[in-house]
Structures
1.
Amino acid sequence: MRLVIVSSRIPYPLEKGDKLRLYHQVKGLAQSHELHLISLYDKDDGLAEADSELEKYCSSRHFFKFSKSRRLAGLPMALWSGLPFTVKYFYSAFLADKIRQAIFEIDPDLIYCQLIRMAPYVRSLPFPKTLDYMDAFSLGFERRASFSPFWLKPLMNFEAGLLKNYENKVYKDFDSHTIISTQDRDHLSVLSREKIEILKNGVDQEFFYPNQDREKKYDLVFCGNMGYDPNVKAALLIGRMMPELRKQHPGLTVLIAGARPDKRVKAMDGTHGITVSGWMDDIRDAYWSSRINIAPIFSGSGLQNKILEAMACGIPCIASSVVAGSIDGKQGKDLLTAASLREFKERITEVLNSEKLANNLAQNGIELVRSKYNWDTFSKKLDGIIRNTAGSNAKALNTDKRI
């Protein structure tokens, strides 16, 4: 089939979760379909490299520049447009005309829309459509509200309410729907949420694997996009934990790795055994050089890819209950969970003090990822969803013609 894929970011390089997810989905769908990618971007840096990589899988690539300054200038209009701020930030009426024109020229058999951010561009178009919610954005903002300062809580809760309404509103405009976890699906308030297919993320298991030959330079590691608010908050929690942990474990070190570190995260570099690396060309170096992976993330939503990557690399993992809730693993067997900062410190001490526990968690984590988080499996499932959606619409169209 001829498919149009619409996304709020160009899915390369792979420094954000939505880009990683879509990139692997594109690779999978390209084996059976003719793909046409339509994406927004804000900077020219890396554009040629991204186009060169995606040319391998997409017959055409249509990249529309939408600078951050233009996005911010349009945010006040969210109050009149009825769109959540998170959605309005990615919407331009001017670009909408260009995007719709490109779609009509391609004349696809189906439109695959990644995230509700892009729903305003395609929701009214007369083609079969699949929406990937990926995460329940409203859930993420509700959690962020609980960890926000008092003056920011009302805004976060207001946005969470707008998002919850919009997640429900756009549901009816799409013929099929996917989401990353049961936890996220169950949070949606749509009437037929049981019809939303769970489509998890996988791990490239040829790329992420255990490497016992690498020297362990760090005791702990936390990876992620360090400009993303839930990750920033998690990094700051690590900064709070380290002084006390180093009293119990002198010389304890932690690596905080990931693109675009917030200035508050950068400021921790070199203090209390903390190293802030920023972007790493090969994120495996962070896992392979560390003993324990931690993820003290208590806000946000969705599935944390970095946990799965760490497991695939044979690193024992300790995660917040928020993170663990989206992972199909058993507490105490595949990973350890913590519901508070105190519990995080306790779990870290348990693993540091028990080589047997560390080895068991590492081996069980590897087996979990190998058995349940395979990109090929999820690509085939998405292919089936898309084929069924396009087929059902074709049958409905033929029935309408007969009538």
2.
Amino acid sequence: MGDRELEPSEVGAIIVAAGISHRMGGVDKLFAPVDGRPLLSYVLDVFEASPAVSRIVIVLSKRNLVPGQKLVARGGYLKIKNICLGGEFRQDSVAEGLKYLVGCEWVVVHDGARPCLTVRLIERGLKEAKVSGAACAAVPATDTIKVVGSDGMVLQTLQRDSLYLAQTPQVFRFDIISEAHHQAKAKLTDDAALVESLGYKVKAYPGSYENIKVTTGQELALVETILRQRKVGL
């Protein structure tokens, strides 16, 4: 592809939002209020604003299908072409979303529970994916990471220098991510791992420590602070 710019018609996005908020104490994190708006709406706003993306698919759980449809209708999003039902696992949900992006050359996969992404992160991922066909946002690990056995005893301390924490957006050439899901023999934790399992190279590009995935009430409060600060230009 060289340095050819990507046309918007070539790029589709899957917003994965079909999970169950096990650690939120009964609160549905995707529709939890963040500065007066549902958390998921912040993700949709960024993808709607990205000039690189032309088609968006949202994958939701059965209980959130109707609330999701109402959110999209109220928001007037023009790029959201499909809202579909997810599967039992995250991997199944992405596979469902891919069915609606046939014809796209590139696919951006993002967690619906990461509301602090930016248009720049999406564009950076698309640029880096041109190198190998796959790219994953990631940040260097800042804590020492230990391998611990089932008895609680430390088995190994890993060298932190080469350890990164994977995030989304993750960007793939459509044929690569489609092949990875068709050939999948195990349930892996992210799409980059699926692609790696087929022998493809994945380029890690700089993510952001603000690009937090909300899994607890504390993280929900933190992303609200970040988004409020952005709104007032701090």
3.
Amino acid sequence: MVFSSLFFILFFLPLNLFFYCLMPNIKAKNVEMLIFSLIFYSWGGPKYLLLLMGMVGIAWFSALRIQQYKRNKKKRMQWLTAGCVGLAAILGIFKYLTFFLSNVQALIHVPSVVPQIVLPIGISFYTFQLLSYVVDVYRGEVEAQKKYWMLLLYAGLFHQCIAGPIVRYEYVAKELENRSARLPSIGSGIRRFFVGLAKKAVLANSCASIADSLLPASAQELAGIPAAGLWVGMLMYMLQIYLDFSAYSDMAIGMGQMIGLHYEENFNYPYMAVSIKDFWRRWHITLSTFFRDYVYIPLGGSRCSKLKNVRNLFVVWLLTGFWHGASWNYVLWGLYFFVFLLMERAFLGKLLEKIPSIFGHIYALIVVFFGWILFRSENMGNIFVILKGMLGKNGNGFMNIHTEIILKNNLFFMIFAVLACTPLFKAGREALLLWHSRRSRLAYPVYVGQVVLMVFLWGLSVLALVGNSYNPFLYFQF
């Protein structure tokens, strides 16, 4: 089940909110949310629900033992190690074992048969949440949750368990136990959800359709796409991956606000960045924060020798690539950004500070654009085919009728999609609200306007989804 499915927006979510409002107290509300979350997650296969419950059990038990031995450093470290190794091992088996054995087989021809293990939806996200919880209990930053079902609610909450944001327990612990949703927060959550839904159903899905038509999976077909088609296809993929993932985060944050839970922001207009360092402060913020707090800083961060600092950065970006997928292109993608971040630390960052920001912005967009070529191409050979084709070196020419028709039919949509990746519409809304507050003390026109806009976005999204089976979501695979 995905947030952008008709079943979810017309049945599951309304039913969830209806019963939530009927619950008499916070405990009953939490039980109701847990039941709906377990149903939501089991939609993709009940056996994976058992896996989620088992991993929560590991985190719950090890955290309780850590807290029990808070005056015995050795015991605490043993239980921290047991909990983290147990969680990481399960993630490794399901996500990386097939990849590892395939590479071993290619080198020494054993094993004879490589098992094909299906990746449980969302395992990377909820594993990182549980790891952060166990570590935070060890650090004394949070109290261990004594109730197993409450920790299961935290890790399995359907808002964010399958595609983030990666929510740290310390940020929602109090709200899980005691919260209330006031009308402004509910209204803000509804607006955020519908904006995200429209971003996904109308914009991201359309970008995906154009990108897939211009970027076929096989190298042979790719070689026949003209240069203009490859450039436009990668631009559409660049827009798709941001609109797709940020839309999901918008919907998750919005649903949280509807019931009084406040999740961290996950995106801050990353394509407005003026450097690669700035890009990663804006892109998938909760993942970057996780690696900073639980890998980079514990390794020594920047408070060490230059050589060790390079090592720390290398480890972080190697893991960042591997986190996104068990394939060499993701590793290459992570190390690609590692190289540019090193250059910015060494000399490029100082240069970018001295020149007009527009040049830094162009530089960041170019680097990110070519990075997405690595990210998309799980078949490593496709990377070279696309790069050669962009220069017309595949004998593919610059333009053909198919590409020209796509460009003409979608030109205005492409412009709108580009603008949707900037703060333009947000700034326009804020300017309108400010203008209205100065002109009139009555808030009713603003509220009515927002309700009309939400109904319009809801209707537009439903129309986009009706009869459309093409509804991919990129980050489910991670």
4.
Amino acid sequence: MLSIVNRTGGGNQSGLDTFIFGQAASMVRSDVYTMAGLAVAIILLIVIAFKEWKLYLFDPDFAKGLGLSSSTMNVLYVFGLVTTIVIGIQAVGVILMAALLIIPAVSARYWTHSFKMMMILAAIFGGLSGALGTFVSAQGTGWPTGPFIVIAASIFFIISLVFGKEKGLLVEQVEFKNQQRKAIAQNELPGVLKEGDH
């Protein structure tokens, strides 16, 4: 669609480039205030309805049995998600926003089983990715901010994948080796006892 529109007369005025890839470097103070206001509203919504959301997301039938309206919860959930996307589109664009919705949450999952802690860690990973990506892109001329933010988020994901204390590859490998040693020790113990009896 971008290629077709850009080939038409005045296609470069369509704004699709900034919509798809973002324009974090050209944001002004009013944009930052708007985004901060929307972000605070989303955070308040999450804090106020945290227990209800957790019930609705993990056990909708139980939530319905407690009297929670599934349609109301769905509307609130979609409203929060769409507002989050709107906040990020101007900074990183549509394509990279999809990555930022997924990568920090998946990275956080490697560190904890707690839903609350996972949300906090995802927010930290997302914030650090934004700060680091913006800092790196500012070091060069014409370096796009959005892709560097996603690269930073991907680095956090790789670190979490390897070193995460819940499901990290390194931790799982160490646990597997420990279980293997225990199994070998348990299998050898009966043999040692039998030799001692003789």
